[in-house]
Amino acid sequence: MEPPIYWPSFFFLLFSAIACAFAVAVVLSANIVRMAFYLVMSLAGTAGLFFVAGADFVGAMQLLIYVGGTLVLLIFGVMLTSQDRFISMKTNSFEMGMAAGIGACLLALLVWAAVSVPEWRGLDRATAEAVPLQPTATPIGMGLLGVRVDAPDKSGYLLIFEIISVHLLVVLIGAAYLARTRQRRRPMAG
Amino acid sequence: MQPLLANLLTEPVGVSHYLIVGAVLFVCGVLCMATKRNALGILMGIELVLNGSNLNFIAFGSPYLRNDPGTIGLDGQLMSLFVIVLAAAEAAVALAIALNFYNSFSSIDVDRADQLQG
Q1: Complex ipTM more than 0.85, yes or no
Q2: Which of residues 166 through 185 in chain A touch B, CB cutoff 8 A?
Q3: Of the candidates A2, A3, A4, A8, which has an alpha carbon nearest to the alpha carbon of residue A129?
Q4: Is A166 helix (H, G, I), strand (E, B) or coil?
Q5: How many domains does chain A have?
Q6: Residue A65 maps to a domain
Q7: Domain range summary for chain B, segments of one domain joined by +
């Protein structure tokens, strides 16, 4: 008799199919507006993969920051620059073919490296079902504040958290300064 | 050592499967960066590459994929949070540069951005 379906594996297959198919669509599409939509779908599929791997907080942040924030920024960029001649820019087919060849070699190398370690093949079903459900929001929040409740011998991330916060602030101010509309200089009167 | 593709629906997946998906995302991102002529297309390629790396971090830290002392535990999730924030910062700056370039040259084609070329 066939063993019953292991649902996390099913959802892994579903989300990875979404993520990979739309990532390939991003590469193959020449229309920038469609590329933006395919990228949204690919990133959402990746968020689903995060959920399947047990990273609930990071998956939610992926949806909020990436799909909700970064992609909206990109779509604004697309809308601000979308004149007719820039919507669809074709790459010539020789370059596409060469890139496909190099990409296939790179992919083969990475896949070979990924499957070559026996410890990475996954647990058996009984072991995986015995792993307790571990919510991650509290340990992540404490880790960002410098206290590791999950592994007391490891160090926290308070300094990195501060650096990255200030970095984000500086970058956003700089981006706003860089993208401002320039005042046209008026000729001096008189 | 169990085979990689047999029993894909009835057995749990492992780190390898996640790494393969991450590799596909990475390669798609690199190809996107190499072949697109629109500056925003190149930005989208960078986002794909960062997502592939995030997926690897999550996979190496997940207790459901490999439950032994070799996992990096919660560090992987914290690292991927940092990567997400850095990606947001990078997208903001790159978009500002692209808009500036568009305002100056009325074009978003990166092949025309050759003023600094020697």
Answers
A1: yes
A2: 167-168, 171-172, 174-176, 178-179, 181-182
A3: A8
A4: helix
A5: 2
A6: yes
A7: 37-62+71-109
